[in-house]
Structure formats: structure tokens, C-alpha cells
Amino acid sequence: MAVRDEFRRLLEREARLLDQLRYDDWLALYTAECVYWVPSTPNAGDPRREIAIMFDDRRRLEDRIYRCAPALPGRRRRLAHRPAGRHVEVFATAREDAFMLRSNF
Predict the structure, then answer these.
(1) What tens digit of pLDDT does each residue of 25-63 get?
(2) Residue 91, φ and ψ in degrees, nearest 5
(3) Ramachandran region, residue 13 (left: φ > 0; alpha: ψ -120 to 50; beta: rest)
């Protein structure tokens, strides 16, 4: 429960930072080795073989930040919808320093 609550706070912080357009602070939540995966189906398998809403590494997250930053001449701003409440599950992985986090969209 304590680990799940820690990750729930992470998701809540992530949503708050994005809602406040604090993109650099949001990006700072993720390491250079991160994988940010949003599957397109509830029972998704391997994101390298199935369609995903997002399956990004750190460089792709930085690209998203650039596109979401305040509009510059000739570029429109793209904003996401405010996320709904989240159900959070945390799973251990083979590595002690890595976890799998699952939440509703």
C-alpha cells in the first residue's frame, strides 16, 4: 500500500504539473532511461508489437514538451484534457530500482 500511495502521489503531481503548464518540472520527474507507455487497450502486451497511444523515451518526451510550450509565431499550442481520477497499481520488476506503474487513462 505504501508503494502504491507513493506512485499515486507521483501521478497526481504529474497531472498537476501538466495542468499548470509546468513542462520543465514535469520532464524532471523522468530519468534519461525512462519509458513512458500509454497502451491503447486494457490488456496490452508488448508495446513494440502493438499500437500504443504513447510509447516514448526521454527524447520523445522532450519533443512533446517543445510542441506544448507557449505558442511561437507560426506554431499553435497543443493542450491535453484534464485527467480524471486515477486508479493506481504498482508492480515490481526484475530490477530492484525499477517498477511498473499502471493507472486508468
Answers:
(1) 999 999 999 999 989 888 888 888 899 999 999 999 998
(2) -125, 140
(3) alpha
Place of cell 480524471: 84
Bridge partners of 55?
37
The answer to whether 31 and 12 are in contact (CB under 8 A) is no
DSSP state of 28: T
Helix (H, G, I), strand (E, B) or coil at 42: coil
Predicted TM-score (pTM) of this structure: 0.62
Please report the pLDDT score of residue 82 as a whole number. 46
Task: In whole angstroms, give the CA distance from residue 98 to residue 64.
Answer: 24
90: β partners: 101
